[in-house]
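Review form for a predicted model. The reviewer records the input and the model, then writes brief findings.
Reviewer: anonymous (R2)
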Amino acid sequence: MRHVCGDKRIGMRISLCLLGALCLLAFFSSVCAASQARELWCASPWLASIARFIGGSYTEVKPLAGWDAQGKIVSQRKTPPAGTILALDPIDAQMRGLKADSPRVRLLYKKLPFPLGQRDAIFFDPSTLPFVAQRILNVLSSLDPENYGFYQRRLAEFQSRMESTIEVGRHLLPTSKILDLTGTVSPWIGASMEGVVRPPQDLWLSWTRGENLEALKSAVAEAVTRKWILLLDPWTPRAVASACEGVPRAVLLPAPEPNEEFFSYLQHLYLTIRESVKE
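Model under review:
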């Protein structure tokens, strides 16, 4: 009887050791998967910000270009790297010296119906952002089908973060009137607060070309008289920004910091407006 009990104890110990070994194996397997993250290059720093969110620990995202202190996009490599490169569309690829029809270049869109100076606004439009993120998911899951479920969960989290960030903006931002003279972030600001006045598109385009500047000066003077906020960003065209130099209540939004998380940057925009109004 004692031998039987002893054999049972030994069997239980062996089983526990095997279970522990399996747990360790599973743990190290997950660590290896994370350490061997798939590399993905992005033609645009905005695209890299979103791809980094969707890819999580399974994708190492590297941008081909970044921002300088003034928000200008500057190339970080003289020659394209080996590996898969993600671009918004053929123009995005060509701007980084890439061939759009290369088998290693993945395009999110065949053609975007936006003028060159308005293309980056797609990354600040809540109505288009989920579709951009979905297309990024499609690319990542085609490169790494085993982790499709993970990328899908990250897409759902992206949607949730976008909506919650907009809600934060609605609570943080003032109810003051704003003359929106931003070059890129306009859709995001308009989605988060009331009282935003944007010049008509035809008039705005004429200002960006240096035309109808008397109308621009009149609009700025009227906004100052009404004590509105004049909102600019680093991508506001020079002709428009010049008309606001030295003007009271003109607020210049910051450019992103290197590798700044996408939604952290969007909240930073809200905080900048809020703090500027308090002064």
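Findings: Confidence is low (pLDDT under 50) at residues 14-35.
Further findings: The chain has ten helices and ten strands.
Recommendation: see findings above.
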